[in-house]
Design goal:
alpha+beta; Tetrahydropterin Synthase, Chain A; 4-stranded antiparallel β-sheet
């Protein structure tokens, strides 16, 4: 199995509901997010790629136009704007366009990340 990944940074704000009032994430705050798309294939294409990294431009374009410098609460409603829910949303957006996609990872900080990977693939 061959695997590749590519990172896409963006900045956005959010607040999480259902937390105690004194929880810092219940207040509006921002992150410098990094979305990592993970692709895999049993075979390489004729150029020797799982997929040409240039073809992932569509991920950057979507992130730039839909997520960058936005309030994620507006985008993910009615869901909580957690990294986990964002990862699942992005997976659902890109899986039809990138059949090799098997996981999306969302990092809010350099030390934390959430990964969405369906059970059956």
């Amino acid at each position: 199995m061959y695997k590749i990944s590519k990172e896409f940074p963006f900045s956005a704000a959010h607040s999480l509901f259902g937390l105690a009032d004194d929880h810092p994430c219940s207040r509006m705050h921002g992150h410098n997010y990094v979305v990592t798309v993970h692709l895999r294939s049993k075979e390489l294409n004729k150029q020797g790629f799982v997929r040409d990294y240039n073809e992932l431009r569509l991920v950057k374009e979507y992130i730039d136009s839909t997520l960058d410098h936005r309030n994620l609460n507006d985008i993910l409603t009615p869901l909580n704007s957690s990294a986990e829910n964002l990862a699942k949303m992005l997976y659902d957006v890109f899986k039809p366009l990138l059949p090799e996609l098997y996981a999306i990872e969302v990092s809010e900080t350099p030390k934390t990340s959430a990964v969405y990977e369906p059970d059956s693939q």
